Known about the structure:
The chain has helices at residues 28-32, 45-61, 67-79, 95-118, 124-152, 167-183, 189-202, 221-231, 239-252, 267-295, 311-316, 318-338, 342-384, 406-414; strands at 36-38, 40-41, 82-84, 87-91, 154-156, 159-163, 204-206, 209-213, 254-256, 259-263, 385-388. The protein is of the alpha+beta class.
Amino acid sequence: MNNTTNTTLSASTIPVRTDEASQIPPSTDALWQNPPHQVHYDGTTNTIWSMWILNLVLKIITLGTYTFWGKTRMRRYLVESFSLMGDRFTYTGRGTELLLGFLKTLPFWAAFITLFLIIPPTMMNRAILYVYPFVLILVLAASYAGLRYRYSRIFWRGVCLQLKGSAWFYAFYTIGQLVLTLLTLGIYAPYADIKCTQYLYKNSYFGSQPFYMTPSPRLLMKTNIVTLLLALVTFGVARLWYSAKLHNHIFASLRLGHFRFHTTYSGYNILELLFGNIILILAPYLIVFSVLFFATPPIHIDSTIPAPVSTNTLLESTDTVNKVQARVDNIVQENIRKLGSPIINFIDITGFYGVLISVIALILGSGWASALVMQRRLEFFVRHFTVIGEDNTSGIIQSKHNKGGILGEGAHLLFGDSVAF
């Protein structure tokens, strides 16, 4: 494996882009004649699960502080489990960077939360309506900036990825495309999806080598319209076929020097992946709550109805009315108590240790399910993704290393983060 970190990979034979003329990609026919290279992944579910448990324990001990180092540790393991053409990817991010980025965003979020606390309840709905577009812009900008950070920490053969461009422009541009899609009832979706993705890859580099995209949204229009018409009756499932064709088209139109990419996604295999993942995520909860349900004794509801009292009797005796009302109230309260939470009944039967065991089983089961879902996603990717081109990265040098702003990654962590990027 070549461990070079800041020098050329080999003799320079591929010209580096110096002007717009060099953006013309190689011909498609020539590219298809090059050998395919499968991306390899050798991570294991057991390792991911054990890291998940360790991160959870350390986060509890450190009151959440270890979150940033736990994420970094997981990212490093996942990234370095991938290899291409015999060389592994490496990840150089640090937990300290995530912590500093997160701390830099706290004043803004403190002010944001304070604003909501001082808004009168009667104006809350209007305030949310006004603030929602602003939050959406922040989410999109933070996602782009966070991606810039992660790009700059991923290396292959001593060269890292880089993402240029403006996170704010990407956010506003994406919202504009979303508005056009909504105004056209989804018909404009292929153009919106392609344009947003094209901006991303237009500003993506592998060292000194830029990515190029030459897509044709018209090729997606038929699938888009058909799946839009079927979306209502299929509860949105039909759109998976559009998503598969969109991703296949994006990768087929993507170039990196003399390398091209090929994917074999289909609506069916994406549906199979999603359905399996949903079952895995729900399984621990279904199992634990089923145990809680069947471990509790059967509940007998008192359905005895007080003997009817004639209208004349009620009118004659207020005392009788009060007695009937008290009887009804007692029956309702008794049945509510019997229908109390199964967890409370379970505590009565098994005691504290039984509940503790159930909670631990739920946590461990959820962790195992999360690890298995992540493993399935990554294996799905490498099974359907291929790089086509001669194994020759000569001429691609590590240009000035822009490490990416940690502020964007810190903001991105507030909105959630997927380590399986």
